[in-house]
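Lab notes, practical 5.
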Amino acid sequence: MREVFFTGPTPRTAAASFGACLAAILELPLEEVPAPRQDEDAAGWGVMRWLGGMGLGLVPVADAASFSWAGPWIGWAVPAAGAERRAVVMFGVPSGVVWDPCGVTAGTGWLLEGGFVVSALDVALARPTRAEAPLTPGTVAAIFVAPDAGAPARQVGEVHALAGKGLDGDRHTVGKGTFPSGPPGSALTLIEAEVCESFTPPLEVNEHRRNLVTRGIDLNGLVGHEFEIGTVRCRGARLCEPCTVVDGYAPRPILRALVHRGGLRADILEDGIIHAGDEVASAG
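Output from the prediction step:
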């Protein structure tokens, strides 16, 4: 996703905000998004046919206030006092605003009323090619466990990794986390130290809430690949995208800055002990 800004005398209408959100999600220049006719809705036939040429479409979201999506989608934000709606880009499970081209969500009292997911017309044709596993190994910079959702995380020098469960003493192992324990990708979360250090001041554990902080390895590249942390074999399940939960733990907005940079969710395949300083490397 790449933010698109209005320039010159462009009116900040509902249609203009919708076009800006589409351009941001598709990472296209704003001028490439067709403007609807005067008698046409912002998500009307003109935009739908243009998207269709790229193999994309718009799926309506009826209950936007409760909808969640681990990717960008467009919501209609209605400001307080009954002002006209404007489009915003939402992201995460649960979702929060990551881009508001008209600034309607800067204040309080606004509501979400409907929206759209930009979707492939045929998902089988749109599936991304799996990235190659990173060749350069990294290391475990820090290990953290927390007994319950929201409880302060505790740094440890080593920890028992339990296959199919999580880290001994952590909320994911005993079903006390924010999200369900047991499904694929729920055992272990990782984030890159380089991402944490890109914040000023650096992102702390009780802001990002990940179990392991690594250094020197591209965690995104481990999705779909087996890898080893010391002698513990794991498998990358999916990106650990940010959401309003992690945004709520932090005393500053971090949701947008962590999009596609929030780290990795992984499964633990074998019991073992993970130590601070252990090598993190693709298993080939």
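Observations recorded by the TA: Residues 14-26 form the longest helix (13 residues). The mean pLDDT is 92.
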